[in-house]
């Protein structure tokens, strides 16, 4: 496809652009008001709350998650509180291709005898609500005496919601601008939710470093010019009855605009909110309209009344879709998010998404069956077809040749045998019904599809259905698609900037009537800012061999690990891959032994007779793994290298049995790696980096002189993360991963994992986790740490106060219960990778890296594009292997030691060089990386298990890691 893109249907393309512009209108108003008066809310409300004080309003601003009222108050509002609420908004917009028209004729239905869905689950919901209430009450009790004394936070950060539209196929004429209007619905007026006990995020203006070489760089932030913006905007609450999809709601509101509002410029979010720059003549409108979509007419009653006073990615239809396999194609789009730095900005970036390929349903069936269309469908193939179609819309074309759109539900029996009731009460098979309609089915033994309402039996043959293109689905991409997206999106900085600006220029914000009506403008070029390039730390190996990394990496070919296991190591290679031949194992094993000698490790010599083990029948070897592991444990093996297939679930089964059942230390290697890399000394060395850490060795440490004063004392580095199931994984819990250092050098870590309710971002058992880590640290070092540096991943701005309140309180409680009276300082840092800030070289850039023209590792930006009153910085710590390097954003929420920005940035950069798995700096600090691995290990343990979601604590107790592993080899998880 190249880099060319266009918005199709050019006669209606301006409507596509309208939505993007309307989004910017809404967000820019919030930014403008926040930048002028960040701590004051002015409400001109028809139903103004009585008795509200400025102090109460100030407390409302400090709440991280506004609880919108079910009935918004009336009136117009200044935008003083908008920017804080922007922190909670993350949306992503798709602008797909037009859906086929719907038919007038319907396929066979069976409405009789159907039960409505609904029963069950109420008790569980109430329990969860009660639990949340109890937790909130407990928090208020604990923190009643600890109200923050700091001044209110200046409003900052971004409004940026990032989920693709679930509405399916939309016309390109409704792509960009409507998505902007939808962002307006995300900004609710905060009436106050009673969370006054929440801690306030650290306010520290001017937290900027000075060290390093200053360089100029561009960032993909476009200035917003708000000087002429009107002072007031008007918000109207829209009610459309009966309820319908957004496609129908938009169509109905368009008629309403023409018939009731006489074409007055108005931004509608496609749901419940509309906005104007000028007050409408009436404060209440009600009208019945007839909307037309897909060749059908529907009647709606629309009520719009005055209330109290931006999805983010717009995908353009590619001229030539890129096939990325698994029946998906790649679309490019524009991400947009407004935020406040030293001035208001619009963050824009190119985005990529896999969309299901449009076409006949039978083509999907054939492609999933190795391009062969079966005559029947059952077993694994039927399941694959169902999984692919789940959540999609399909277009059924009836005997009259007119298409009608339905949502797919499930597969039913073959058309030749699946029966339904006719209107006269008699029964007919689906195939016989269509035969009477003049359509003889070609594949009567394929299953029919249940579509439309789940409480009605609307069944249609597969061969009469097609998938409309451009459906943005909220479910996990196939792994093959994810890999292809990464590969196709990996471009150099020049190409990426060109893609961004191409799509941005198509939107043409400044020619939008709505934007002009509100009186502001959008810049036309990236912002140029100052960055600094700080130096890397030096690392030390045995015999004081010191190496200074260059360009984010270093070679240690002639250096030995600083610490190894003092005892000779007994080991085996276990082959569970039926495609890996003994000849490959021979070379691989010999090289493992040779590299161990270079590092000074005492390892038993390798021999195929003594060291290698292969089950008799490799096809069923995984079934014998328990007995094999027990036998190897009896032989007192220190570690076992397990060669596994790259397909299937061998990895999870090996880890479950070895770590939860037997207590055997393993290192898994894919058979392909043995086949392709057995003679690659770099690969063999990387394997030893992991094995040495697992067997209680230390690969390298920071040179003492490289340590900033901040960490020249007892420091425990803690990383924490929560991984969540994908939307379609309804019976899988969220998994907590926490890793903490227990040596004074910050190399050795142990880990904990926990299971908790899906989508719960707060770590509920953190106090017990930290208590265990503190005891381990004290055992190894004779005292508690002086400082805990807590790097927390996976948190959005809207969750900052809640996370800080719950988790900082847990850390402090753990310290108090471990050693009453002992003071341990805490620095609480949020690590963010899910953002769209990218850095690009410009004429003033002093260094660029490699063929992708990236800024070098060590590049720091801590002002101009960061929140003006908060302690934040961006850091590129790694050399990007492919594509444009993504800087990591660090937000300091709490800091007992009032750390110097230069020192904190240097410590964070140094920790990126302490990851055991490789001799290169990684993109975020080692403790955070280890927390990811800990959470991943927890997810491995629950794979293919049926869990009682009402008793996750009990399920966790069933999956305890054996003491031989968790205590004997704390870094078993790297």
From TrEMBL:
<dbReference type="InterPro" id="IPR036085">
    <property type="entry name" value="PAZ_dom_sf"/>
</dbReference>
<dbReference type="InterPro" id="IPR003165">
    <property type="entry name" value="Piwi"/>
</dbReference>
<dbReference type="InterPro" id="IPR003100">
    <property type="entry name" value="PAZ_dom"/>
</dbReference>
<dbReference type="Pfam" id="PF08699">
    <property type="entry name" value="ArgoL1"/>
</dbReference>
<protein>
    <submittedName>
        <fullName>Uncharacterized protein</fullName>
    </submittedName>
</protein>
<dbReference type="InterPro" id="IPR032474">
    <property type="entry name" value="Argonaute_N"/>
</dbReference>
<dbReference type="InterPro" id="IPR012337">
    <property type="entry name" value="RNaseH-like_sf"/>
</dbReference>
<feature type="compositionally biased region" description="Low complexity">
    <location>
        <begin position="128"/>
        <end position="166"/>
    </location>
</feature>
<dbReference type="Pfam" id="PF16486">
    <property type="entry name" value="ArgoN"/>
</dbReference>
<dbReference type="InterPro" id="IPR032472">
    <property type="entry name" value="ArgoL2"/>
</dbReference>
<dbReference type="InterPro" id="IPR036397">
    <property type="entry name" value="RNaseH_sf"/>
</dbReference>
<dbReference type="Pfam" id="PF02171">
    <property type="entry name" value="Piwi"/>
</dbReference>
<dbReference type="GO" id="GO:0035194">
    <property type="term" value="P:regulatory ncRNA-mediated post-transcriptional gene silencing"/>
</dbReference>
<dbReference type="InterPro" id="IPR014811">
    <property type="entry name" value="ArgoL1"/>
</dbReference>
<dbReference type="GO" id="GO:0034587">
    <property type="term" value="P:piRNA processing"/>
</dbReference>
<dbReference type="Pfam" id="PF16488">
    <property type="entry name" value="ArgoL2"/>
</dbReference>
<feature type="compositionally biased region" description="Low complexity">
    <location>
        <begin position="23"/>
        <end position="43"/>
    </location>
</feature>
<dbReference type="Pfam" id="PF16487">
    <property type="entry name" value="ArgoMid"/>
</dbReference>
<feature type="region of interest" description="Disordered">
    <location>
        <begin position="1"/>
        <end position="174"/>
    </location>
</feature>
<feature type="compositionally biased region" description="Low complexity">
    <location>
        <begin position="55"/>
        <end position="65"/>
    </location>
</feature>
<feature type="compositionally biased region" description="Low complexity">
    <location>
        <begin position="1"/>
        <end position="13"/>
    </location>
</feature>
<dbReference type="GO" id="GO:0004521">
    <property type="term" value="F:RNA endonuclease activity"/>
</dbReference>
<dbReference type="GO" id="GO:0005737">
    <property type="term" value="C:cytoplasm"/>
</dbReference>
<dbReference type="Pfam" id="PF02170">
    <property type="entry name" value="PAZ"/>
</dbReference>
<feature type="domain" description="PAZ">
    <location>
        <begin position="360"/>
        <end position="469"/>
    </location>
</feature>
<feature type="domain" description="Piwi">
    <location>
        <begin position="639"/>
        <end position="943"/>
    </location>
</feature>
<feature type="compositionally biased region" description="Low complexity">
    <location>
        <begin position="87"/>
        <end position="115"/>
    </location>
</feature>
<dbReference type="InterPro" id="IPR032473">
    <property type="entry name" value="Argonaute_Mid_dom"/>
</dbReference>
<dbReference type="GO" id="GO:0003723">
    <property type="term" value="F:RNA binding"/>
</dbReference>
<dbReference type="InterPro" id="IPR045246">
    <property type="entry name" value="Piwi_ago-like"/>
</dbReference>
